[in-house]
Amino acid sequence: MSRRGFLRIAGAGAAVAGLSTTGLSSAAGAAELTPLAANLPTGSNDAYWREVERLFMLDKNVLFMNVGTVGSPPREVVDTLDRVHREVAVGAKSAYSDFADVRAVAAKGYGCDPDELVISHNTSDGMSKILAGLNLRAGDEILTTNHEHPGGNVPMALARDRYGVVLKRVELPVGNDQRAEDYVAAFERAISSRTKVMLFSAPTYKTGTMLPIQLLAKLAQAHGVTTVVDGAHIPGMMAYDFHALGVDFLAGSAAKWQCGPGGTGVLYIRNKVLPQHNPNPLPEFWPVVSSSYPEEGGLPPRSSGSKESYDIAKYLQSVGNGSIAIMEGVRNACEVWDRIGRQRIQDHALELSAYLKELVTERWGVASLYSPKDDPRLVCALSSFNPFRNPADVLDKAKSDQFVARMKDEYGIVIRNVDFPVIGSAQKHAPVRISTHLFHQRDDVERVVDAMWDLAGKMA
Ligand SMILES: Cc1ncc(COP(=O)(O)O)c(C=O)c1O
User: Which residues form the Aminotransferase class V domain (predicted)?
Assistant: First the structure.
């Protein structure tokens, strides 16, 4: 068997092992191959994913591997948007609505209830609404990390400058030599009696490290701390059951891995006590952007039991006139994912990422990886690594920019780079980041690895 053939199997095994240990799966993840169309071949996995690829409109002349920045809606979602935009124009339809029906479809796929799910504008919008809605005061601490995105960093900075909230950062490790418990220990060392919120990205967009959400949520619960997850990359990539994560808030994108319309996101707000997953009382939280919150006030206290006392998501959803077309597009994107099976999509994307990491390790060595590979609790479908023959070149951001530009211009492959602090390094590192998703195949992974190896040789 060829080395690549062997690695394919090894990669698949690693991914499957990883999934079984998370213990998380979507209610919508079907066990059997669900036909996408009457003539869909179910006998062969490869044939199935080729059929899935055909659901998308992506330019065939480009290999697009930057889903971490933006996804691409399936053709049927584009058709839905087009049709409904036209109906709205013809009928001059308004949408003063809480879109309860769309939230119900989405919530089912994400393992939560409609009263806990808002279709937001994007991750940044969700993070801003979370931080503005919490009751934070001078001296309260937010415990976060040094690898956050501006989507989380900016609303935290506003809370610091406006209220005197203190931001404390855990320095995150990089590479393969780490385990989920290391993260729990690092956060535990930094928690103080003033810590009110733990806010972290899972995965981080820098290294594609999936911080162990459940373990960190348990730690926060034990200290009475509110958890906020920047889960930009979770919807559509991971088949997570949001309740089972045990967190209080999660903001994600619906336009990246979920491949919904641009300008859409998913905002989860725990709205009840979950005896099994999060028995802590609900934090004080205000739906600060709303045109439907009762003007006269008088809402009951937030629930202290397993049933919501009111639908908090509807107050954040119903803000002036909305877009029926965009909301129908989100519904349709969720339906496509649920039809294929969210667990199956996660398995495929992570299997490709595991394969990519094995091929990178074979060529560049395991030390080139910024993403973890061997602890299945830390992996996702974002993979970061140092592509340069001279490892020190990863400190040269301009060279890293050039690498990404030449991958596009000379090989027709779209990837991106990221830059971030690394413990023990005076300078930031700027590796490349590759996304593997449901419209990719194993030969796409081989193609990007061969191209990067070739380009690295030219740039040595
Ligand atoms: C971790 C993380 N948070 C937030 C964002 C912002 O996402 P959005 O465009 O959905 O606001 C990104 C975008 O890449 C991200 O990677």
Answer: 83-448
Mean pLDDT of 322-345: 97
Q: How far apart are CA 160 and CA 91, in angstroms?
A: 46
Kindly give, in sequence order, each residue whose CB lies less than 8 Å from that of residue 319, ignoring residues fewer than 6 positions away: 289, 290, 291, 292
* Ligand 1 center from residue 269 Cα (angstroms): 18
> Are 62 and 107 contained in the same domain?
no
| Domain housing 316 | 82-337
Q: Is the Cβ atom of 230 under 6 angstroms away from ligand 1?
A: yes
* Cβ proximity of 172 and 184 under 8 Å: no
Same domain, 69 and 215: no
Q: How many domains does the chain contain in total?
A: 2
Q: Do residues 449 and 360 make contact, with C-beta atoms less than 8 angstroms apart?
A: yes
Integer angstrom CA distances of residue 12 from 8, 18, 52: 6, 10, 19
Per the CB < 8 A criterion, the answer to whether 339 and 37 are in contact is no
Determine how many CB atoms are found less than 10 A away from the CB of residue 198.
26
Residue 454 pLDDT grade (very low, low, confident, very high; cuts 50, 70, 90): very high
Atom of ligand 1 nearest to the CA of 201: 1
Q: Are 381 and 331 found together in one domain?
A: no
Calpha distance 234→251 (Å, rounded): 9
The CATH number covering residue 394 comes to: 3.90.1150.10
Q: Calculate how far, in angstroms, residue 353's C-alpha sits from the geometric centre of ligand 1.
A: 20
Q: Give the mutation target among 118, 120, 121, 124 for probing the ligand 1 site: most ligand atoms within 8 A of CB.
A: 124
DSSP state of 169: E
The DSSP line for 16-34 is HHHHHHH----TT--SSPP
Separation of alpha carbons 348 and 29, rounded Å: 13
> Which whole number is the average pLDDT over 310-330?
98
pLDDT band at 5 (very low <50, low <70, confident <90, very high): low
User: 311, 337, 363 — which closes off a domain?
Assistant: 337
Residue 334 near residue 258 (C-beta atoms within 8 A)? yes
Q: What is d(CA 443, CA 77) in angstroms, rounded to the nearest whole number?
A: 27
Ligand 1 atom with the smallest distance to the CA of 255 is 10
State residue 42's pLDDT score. 53
* Pair 313, 406 in one domain: no
Domain boundary residue, one of 337, 363, 398: 337
CATH code, 254: 3.40.640.10
User: 453: burial class by Cβ within 10 Å (0-12, 13-18, 19+)?
Assistant: middle
**CB burial class (10 A; 0-12, 13-18, 19+) of residue 95?**
middle
